[in-house]
């Protein structure tokens, strides 16, 4: 459980740090791109004086060097002087001149160009600059920032895992203390309860009045319930930690457990549909306890027949136990797996509220998942999904 919390904290920490890093890197990229674009545009604006182009028109063409190109127009829109690349497509340039835009970027034949136009009473001027080197710089910047992101992700995951471990350490210590206390208390309670139960059985052999026998029977029942509760608390203290795992015939285990449980049912039928030769890896005693918990739940909260199925799919083995009883409201579907939660079931006066918590603990230890499908007043179906070994 705590390892799950640690993993979630790791994802939370690393996700938060990574999000901040990505936002910073995005800001760096767009700021750099804006500065480079503004530098290129300022260079075009600095040479947009029409008198300068008048000198170029008369042969003084060393004033502006490539890769800046230009085109001059008279006030009536006719072309006066041009020096544009021969392979430059004319359609994007024409659309730009017809628009009200001041600047625009175009891409042609592997080259990037920045267009800038300026209008004056003497006519209009079109400036065009090859900014391929700038765009290549931005592409390399993107690659570098992507590399930084990947490397930072790995570093952040490691750092976050360490930080998450330190964060859950006090929780781990408190949890260990609680588990030791529960385990020690359960062990200490088992001995006096066993002595008490044995004493009650001994008293049953003595001659007693009818009222005495009734009281003794009630004491024996309550003592048995306490023994059962102590065993459940001890199992929960161990967090469903299984004993030695081995390959088990789940088909035989479910069939035998259901057959033993069938004798406790009165005026009801337990329908069994178990596929043969289904094997899983697990602890036999805990898996029997798991099946018994769901059978007891079905019997306690339903007066109708109980259905047990064990089937396999291409990816897992599924144990399904269904009843046709009072059902569980949707808002309680997650709560029923909490310790001591009973909800509306409390009105039946049975159980301690630990059964499903123990079942989930055992399922987690076997890497299984419990699915719940229930409708109030119609019934409940629990499906335990086991991985194929």
The CATH architecture designation of the largest domain is 2-Layer Sandwich
Number of domains: 2
Total count of strands: 12
Task: Return the CATH class of the largest domain.
Answer: Alpha Beta
Q: Name the helix and strand elements from N-terminus to C-terminus, one letter apiece.
A: HHEEHEEEHHEHEEHEEHEE
In the predicted model, the low-confidence regions spanning at least 5 consecutive residues are: 59-64
Structural class: alpha+beta
Overall radius of gyration: 40 Å
Question: What sort of overall outline do the alpha carbons produce when their principal axes are compared?
Answer: elongated
Question: Helix count, per DSSP?
Answer: 8
Report how far apart the termini are: 23 Å
**Mean of all residue-level pLDDT scores:** 80
Describe the structure.
Helices cover 52% and strands 20% of the residues. The protein folds into two domains: 2-137, Beta-Lactamase (2-Layer Sandwich), CATH 3.30.450.160; 246-387, Histidine kinase-like ATPase, C-terminal domain (Heat Shock Protein 90, 2-Layer Sandwich), CATH 3.30.565. Helix 1 (2-46) runs antiparallel to helix 4, helix 6 (250-262) crosses helix 7 (284-300) and helix 7 (284-300) packs antiparallel against helix 8. With 389 residues, the protein is an alpha+beta fold. The chain is built from eight helices and twelve strands. Strands 2-1-5-4-3 form a five-stranded antiparallel β-sheet, sandwiched between helices. Strands 7-9-10-12-11 form a five-stranded mixed β-sheet. Strands 6-8 form a two-stranded antiparallel sheet. Keywords: ATP-binding, Kinase, Membrane, Nucleotide-binding, Phosphoprotein, Transferase, Transmembrane, Transmembrane helix, Two-component regulatory system. This is histidine kinase. Its EC number is 2.7.13.3.
